Amino acid sequence: MTDTTTLTSASTPTAPTAPTAPTLRANHEATPATIAPAQFRALMSTFPTGVAVVTTGGPEDPPRGLTVSSVSSVSLDPPTLLVCLNRNSRTLESVLERRTFAVNLLHAGARSAATLFASGDPRRFDAVEWANSAEFGGPHLVRDAHAIADCRVSRTLRVGDHEVIFGEIFRVEQDRPEDADPLLYGMRTFASWPAAAA
């Protein structure tokens, strides 16, 4: 008698099944758009800061400089600060070429210098008293600064339309800190330290 029994699929040897990878849920949330430049300016205007003029250029070079409020300490060892300069600035071009610069921290009586160096006036150095030396990182605004830090560029970082310049400080000229009367800028206006602290 012929055996017509057939084998069931259960009795058929099969290869082990690989584990199924977990299904990742697609993130359909759109990346939030950045705020408008005017809104960003309005935001930062409520954060008062000191005012400085960053200068560069050797004794035989044409002086360069512009007003900044984006100055920050970075490190005590080595002593390092940073400044942020517009990528279209000729001052930035000179800083990157010379690899040194000076940060002139302005006193309360230097509002006119702050406005002048923010204007882009090509003759701005003719309107202030300044000095330069091979020992400096850049021109010193001798009548408008209560402290000056001479720096060498240690690194740079491009962020949007600005370049962040990190500077190691190799020389400082400073009045007595307790006598300083720094110029401040906030709410789109200048103020002195006592007025802001009152």
Automatic annotation (TrEMBL):
Residues 1-24 have a biased composition (Low complexity). InterPro entries: Flavin_Rdtase-like_dom (IPR002563), NADH-dep_flavin_reductase (IPR050268), Split_barrel_FMN-bd (IPR012349). Gene3D superfamilies: Electron Transport, Fmn-binding Protein, Chain A. SUPFAM superfamilies: FMN-binding split barrel. Residues 1-26 are annotated as: Disordered. Residues 44-192 form the Flavin reductase like domain. This is Flavin reductase family protein.
